[in-house]
Design brief:
Layout: H1 4-10, E1 17-20, E2 24-28, E3 38-42, H2 54-74, E4 79-83, E5 99-104, H3 122-132
Antiparallel strand pairs: 1-2, 2-3, 3-5, 4-5
The chain binds guanosine-5'-monophosphate and zinc ion.
Zinc ion binds at residues 3, 5-6, 45, 96.
Amino acid sequence: MDCIFCKILKGEVPCEKIYENDQVFAFLDIMPVNPGHTLVIPKEHFENIEELPENILCEMSKVVKKIGQAMIKGLNVKGYNLALNNRTMAGQVVPHVHFHVIPRVKGDGLRLWPQRKYQEQEAQIVAEKLIKNL
Ligand code: 5GP
Ligand code: ZN
């Protein structure tokens, strides 16, 4: 498997480990938005959220929370962003599903997404399409 995160898990590529348990591993992103930017990954290779079993997603969420708490306490930051780029269209580069936990500092330049208003009826139409497929 030619996956950089699997190589990190096997110890073939070095990383700055923050935490691990049976199912989840957390380490520093090599190119952080801010120092402490952490990636939380499952120990088993799954490409995206659709493939990921729900129990592992739950375990990842617990670790995300733990890392966030450590950022607030240990890095003295006032907030952090969670991101998960799911599939190439959404900006996923490494095809091993991962949460980004990104500590925020004033003036760091990280921009969130642009937003727009719905046109008439558009919200109901899109809501129906979603609800039908739950
Ligand atoms: P994506 O764009 O897939 O959501 O994010 C992948 C992230 O993995 C990027 O932020 C990138 O900096 C990080 N990354 C890629 N290769 C390595 C690596 O070899 N080591 C570490 N620690 N992070 C990596
Ligand atoms: Zn992998």
